């Protein structure tokens, strides 16, 4: 069965420090991986995706993610956190069955402290 | 939130009532999805539709129904058979690529 795990419910980081939000996955076949961000009482906003190609994917708002096939991970990163980055972050994987169904992690709340 | 609208933003339902949540998109996307979000559980798929007049059950379809009569519209009905409907409901759409685009959500509360 395909799955996504976000092992941390919350991540705290000081403003200006680098941040990492972790995601590991389990899929059959090649993974299609996504990161989304959600602000309070809002829908999800797309940040970035990995389909194929370079392992380092750059996305919106200065975020990037590193795909690591051997560790089955797709961690979200940013070199310098902003207070405005505080939000709920979701990792997702598309099922490889061709049904275009997506599996979401449980989310990680990022809190950037001033 | 792009060109996807959901209404109403807040919805209150009495026990035993059916309610319908609206989702409309002007992005000309073929596929549309409904998710339910509960605290600490992430997003769970209720129904999805790849094309007009066709839809499939997701992981938690019991107590819900949908229709897809028009490309731009994918309404979700929460029936009285859904025993715990209080949640945040998110609609999404997808064009031929892989990225989903989400609406702003509807918060449903059972009184």
Task: Describe, in plain words, how this protein is organized in 3D.
The complex is a heterodimer of chains A (114) and B (111). By secondary structure, chain A is mostly beta strands. In chain A, 0% of the residues lie in helices and 51% in strands. The N and C termini of chain A lie far apart (41 Å). With 111 residues, chain B is an all-beta fold. Helices cover 0% and strands 50% of the residues of chain B. Chain B contains no helices and 11 strands. In chain B, the strands form 2 sheets. In chain B, strands 2, 4, 5, 6, 9, 10 and 11 form a 7-stranded mixed sheet that branches. In chain B, a hairpin with a 6-residue loop joins β5 and β6. Chain B is globular, with a radius of gyration of 13 Å.
Mean pLDDT of chain B: 93
> SSE order of chain B in H/E notation?
EEEEEEEEEEE
Structural class of chain A: mainly beta
Q: What's the helix count of chain B?
A: 0
Distance between termini of chain B? 28 Å
Q: Sheet with the most strands of chain A?
A: 6 strands, mixed
Detail the poorly predicted runs of chain A.
none
Which range does the strand content of chain B fall in? Answer: over 45%
Q: Which helices and strands appear, and what pairs or packs with what?
A:
The complex is a heterodimer of chains A (114) and B (111).
Chain A: E1 3-5, E2 10-14, E3 19-21, E4 24-26, E5 33-38, E6 44-50, E7 56-58, E8 64-68, E9 73-78, E10 87-94, E11 102-104, E12 108-113
Parallel strand pairs in A: 2-12
Antiparallel strand pairs in A: 1-4, 3-9, 5-6, 5-10, 7-8, 8-9, 10-11, 10-12
Chain B: E1 4-7, E2 10-13, E3 19-25, E4 31-38, E5 42-49, E6 56-57, E7 64-66, E8 76-78, E9 87-94, E10 100-102, E11 106-110
Parallel strand pairs in B: 2-11
Antiparallel strand pairs in B: 1-3, 3-8, 4-5, 4-9, 5-6, 7-8, 9-10, 9-11
Sum up the structure in keywords:
heterodimer, A: 114 residues, mainly beta, six-stranded mixed β-sheet, four-stranded antiparallel β-sheet, globular, B: 111 residues, 11 strands
